[in-house]
Write a structure and sequence with these properties.
This protein starts with a helix and ends in a 35-residue tail after the last helix. Helices cover 56% and strands 5% of the residues. Helix 5 runs antiparallel to helix 6, helix 6 packs antiparallel against helix 15 and helix 10 crosses helix 15. The chain has a domain of 245 residues: Cytochrome p450 (Orthogonal Bundle), CATH 1.10.630. The protein contains 19 helices and six strands. The chain is mostly helical and 414 residues long. Pfam families: p450.
Length: 414
């Protein structure tokens, strides 16, 4: 209900002035593009409310200003030293392909649970099922840690991971209302026993990896370790770096990357951003798969169409390889439409580093004012998506994508 009312409001007010509350809402696609892309250098900060936790402070999501630039430079170093491409994701196609066997193993665990439930005519809690699958998948791919969440819920890794997602309410309340008091008494926003567990676990894995010269690991931890090792080897990739910049039209990356004092990767950086990777990957993926399962269940015609596409591309042994999966247009459309209807975050924020003239609106947003971009409302605006509350995957088929208004599809930002 709230989402519907919010959508109706945004339809009438594309740019909402909330400056008396210290906030400003922007939902006009062209203005969203300016803030998130064109003038991004002025909006690198989110409204994180600050932090009182050492680990949280060192993550890319919480860091601000120069510290954010330093961590972002480290991410670029990861791109360069592992794939030598400017805008390649940390898990590039080649790296994901290497992890496919790990993901497939986790999928088979889901298959077994579904088959067991079907044979016994039992109900399945899809949210728990997909959460367990996501936990196993990201533990394998991010930390090379084997878990069997479906059958071994008391695994210490699983117990502590779940604690991260069931944040103690009084800590969250204290963080929002009594931060100075919590800071004075050194009370962390995160559960200390949980962070200590992951700190020990990740530190131990990192220590083992540094001793292991085989180079046979392809997870996120290894990419961070590689970046730590390669700070002193930037000159060896200088020519490739320049060529990549020229190809992608990037003009200031070399200046950032060749400042070694900014690029030193500490063990705390590795710990904080590995933990962030786990948190971001677990909840968002479980959220997507749960909602998509539900949407397909209540739209049997879409479910049938998707099943036909999958069956038609399955080999004689009943398997789908990675290259086939990423080229299934209706599967991609179902995922995209699920993310449109149920984005992992209802909105995102930016805080300007200086006074900012908002397009041709005549409005100047003062430095430090929080800008809120209402993703849920934009995704449900009938101006951009006719019948916005209906599940219509065809919107995202290749032949229809060019009909979408740019910067109105923002499930993970822009």
């Amino acid at each position: 209900m709230f989402g519907n009312c919010f959508s109706a409001l945004i339809k009438k007010l594309k740019t909402t002035d909330l400056r008396n509350t210290g906030k400003f809402m922007v939902a006009e696609p062209e203005l969203v593009k300016n803030i998130m892309i064109k003038d991004f250098h002025l909006f690198v900060n989110h409204n994180t409310l600050g932090s009182i936790d050492e680990i949280a402070d060192h993550s890319l999501l919480s860091a601000e200003d120069e510290e954010w630039k330093r961590l972002r430079s480290i991410v670029k170093l990861i791109y360069y030293t592992n794939s030598l491409q400017i805008v390649s994701p940390t898990f590039s196609t080649g790296k994901i392909r290497k992890m496919y066997a790990l993901v497939e193993h986790c999928v088979k665990g889901v298959d077994k649970m579904l088959e067991k439930a079907a044979n016994g005519e039992q109900e399945i809690d899809v949210r728990s099922l997909m959460g367990n699958y996501t936990m196993d998948g990201i533990a394998s791919c991010a930390f090379a840690t084997k878990t069997d969440t479906h059958n071994d819920p008391n695994n210490p890794f699983i117990i502590n991971a779940r604690k991260l997602f069931s944040q103690n309410m009084w800590r969250s309340f204290g963080y929002l209302t009594m931060k100075p008091v919590m800071k004075f008494f050194n009370i962390s926003i995160l559960e200390p026993t949980t962070t200590e567990f992951f700190k020990r676990a990740i530190t131990e894995i990192v220590s083992q990896r540094k001793k292991d010269k085989s180079g046979g690991h392809h997870d996120f931890l290894q990419l961070m370790i590689n970046a730590q090792k390669n700070v002193d080897n930037l000159e060896d990739i200088d020519d490739k770096l320049m060529a990549a910049e020229a190809h992608h039209g990037m003009d200031d990356n070399r200046k950032l990357l060749t400042n070694k004092s900014k690029l030193e990767v500490s063990d705390l950086d590795i710990l904080a951003n590995s933990l962030l990777f786990f948190l971001a990957g677990f909840e968002t993926t479980g959220h997507l798969l749960s909602h998509m399962s539900y949407l397909l269940a209540i739209n049997p015609e879409c479910q049938k169409k998707l099943m036909e596409e999958v069956v038609a591309n399955t080999d004689a042994n009943g398997n789908l390889d990675y290259d086939t999966i990423i080229r299934l247009p209706y599967l991609d459309a179902c995922v995209s439409e699920s993310l449109r209807l149920h984005s992992p975050a209802p909105g995102t924020t930016r805080v300007g580093s200086e006074d900012y003239k908002l397009g041709d609106t005549g409005i100047t947003i003062k430095k430090g004012i929080e800008i809120f971009i209402p993703i849920h409302a934009i995704h449900h605006n009938p101006e951009y998506y006719p019948k916005p509350h209906d599940f219509i995957p065809d919107r995202f088929l290749p032949e229809n994508r060019d009909k979408l208004t740019p910067y109105t599809y923002l499930p993970f930002g822009a």
